[in-house]
């Protein structure tokens, strides 16, 4: 009695042996959390908590100059979605990231008076018609931090830029970096969020579905 061999049997055996060998090799390799599923991991990280939103329309406005343009853009963003698209407030999310000279937008009056943030860019206080010694972007009008926070806008601040600003101020004033850095950190306006680096925040927010506009 003769038997006819199945040509597919050797191939199946080879694939099984290869799979077993691969499993043995990779068994000891630690899994890097988020390496294969970066988008899923975003919402799990502490520094990304500010990105958590159910809003369908989400945009980050990157502020690099000391003026109210990013607040104007964010306000227009919210208004247009409300008026022209009948979007609900919880369906639209605006974030303003302050960076470089714009960092002062997120600092209180005491810091403005102490460090003279308005002198370089020559920011004029509309109440005194002089160079501002208070944060004229903090409150008192529709395009201020306080007014936009009440509309759900988030303000994030770049810690890398804050450290660089602290270094420059420390050198100019003959004070220690640590003293000025801690002073500026504690001078942030209520509700502002310090992120490790704006360039990373922009990247990660885009990965999380935010669009980007330089303000």
Question: Could you please describe the fold and organization of this structure?
Answer:
It is a single chain. This protein is of the alpha/beta class and 215 residues long. The protein has a single domain (38-214), classed as Hypothetical Protein Ychn, Chain: A (3-Layer(aba) Sandwich). It has 8 helices and 5 strands. It has a 5-stranded parallel β-sheet with strand order 4-3-2-1-5, sandwiched between helices. Helix 6 (159-173) packs across helix 7 (177-186). The N and C termini lie far apart (85 Å). The relative contact order is 0.15.
Query: Which percent range describes the beta-strand content?
Result: 5-15%
Main β-sheet, spatial strand arrangement: 4-3-2-1-5
CATH superfamily: DsrEFH-like
DSSP summary, beta strand count: 5
Rg over alpha carbons = 26 Å
Shape: globular
Can you summarize the main beta sheet?
5 strands, parallel
* Strand/helix succession: HHEHEHHEHHEHE
- Catalogue the unreliable spans: 1-5, 21-43
CATH structural class: Alpha Beta
The helix-and-strand class reads alpha/beta
Average pLDDT level: 86
Q: Helical content, roughly?
A: 40-55%
Number of continuous helical runs = 8
Second-tier CATH architecture = 3-Layer(aba) Sandwich
Overall tally of structural domains: 1
Give the termini separation: 85 Å
CATH topology description? Hypothetical Protein Ychn, Chain: A
């Amino acid at each position: 009695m003769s038997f006819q061999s199945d040509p597919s049997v050797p191939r199946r055996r080879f694939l099984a042996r290869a799979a077993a060998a691969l499993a043995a090799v990779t068994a000891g390799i630690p899994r890097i959390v988020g390496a294969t599923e970066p988008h899923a991991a975003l919402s799990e990280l502490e520094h990304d908590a500010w990105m958590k939103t159910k809003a369908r329309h989400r945009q980050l406005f990157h502020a690099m100059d000391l003026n109210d343009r990013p607040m104007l853009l964010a306000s227009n963003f919210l208004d247009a979605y409300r008026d022209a698209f009948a979007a609900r407030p919880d369906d639209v999310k605006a974030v303003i990231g302050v960076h470089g000279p714009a960092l002062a937008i997120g600092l209180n009056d005491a810091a403005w008076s102490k460090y003279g943030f308005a002198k370089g860019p020559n920011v004029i206080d509309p109440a005194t018609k002089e160079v501002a010694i208070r944060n004229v972007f903090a409150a008192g009008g529709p395009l201020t931090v306080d007014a936009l926070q009440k509309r759900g806008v988030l303000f994030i601040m770049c810690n890398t830029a804050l450290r660089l600003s602290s270094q420059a101020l420390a050198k100019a004033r003959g004070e220690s970096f640590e003293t000025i850095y801690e002073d500026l950190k504690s001078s942030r306006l209520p509700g502002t969020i310090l992120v490790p680096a704006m360039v990373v925040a922009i990247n990660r927010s885009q990965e999380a579905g935010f669009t980007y506009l330089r303000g």
